Amino acid sequence: KMRDRSIQEATTLSDLFKHPDPELQAAVCKDVVKTSGKSILILLEGYDELPPDLQERSIFSTLIEGKELPNATILVTSRTSSSDIVYEKCKATKFQHIEVVGFSGDQIESYIENAVPNEKVLEAFRHYLKKYPHIHGLMYIP
């Protein structure tokens, strides 16, 4: 997660590949660099949570721009309001934009009815959601 201070302070690829065994960490990093990241998926979750200066110039920028590990697949998650920043960095790479949108009330109800075929359990679940509206609210945004 990008809000993690140890991740934000990363300046090298080795800093991102954390493992309790330093020798294994170094070996993995060496192999990843040797293949330019081929067959590697790097998830940068919450990119918009990085301070602006780190969004502009950091190990994360070089990964997103394809300067580091050009053969790796980089998956960047961000709030929709920040997606333009990510898009600008990705223009020169093989880039796909996917937007995950929330569910409507009807879609949630349909899903619940399909997932809970037992009428008694279904009613108990609906009662639970009414009792805890914050749980119900989480269903709207995946």
What does this structure look like?
- The chain is mostly helical and 142 residues long.
- The protein has helices spanning 5-8, 13-16, 22-34, 52-56, 59-64, 83-90, 105-115, 119-131, 133-138; strands at residues 41-44, 73-76.
- A two-stranded parallel ribbon has the order 1-2.
- The longest helix is centred in the first third of the chain and has 13 residues, at 22-34.
- The chain is elongated.
Task: Give a short overview.
With 142 residues, the chain is mostly helical. Helix content is 49%, strand content 6%.
Strand fraction equals 5-15%
Mean pLDDT: 84
How helical, in percent, are the residues? 40-55%
- Rg for CA atoms: 20 Å
Runs with pLDDT <50, length 5+? Answer: none
Side by side, the strands of the main sheet go: 1-2
Please give the alpha-carbon distance between the first and last residues: 17 Å
Q: Please identify the oligomeric state.
A: single chain
What is the molecular shape?
Answer: elongated
Order of helices and strands: HHHEHHEHHHH
The strand count comes to 2
Largest sheet: 2 strands, parallel
- Helix run count: 9
Tell me the structural class: mainly alpha
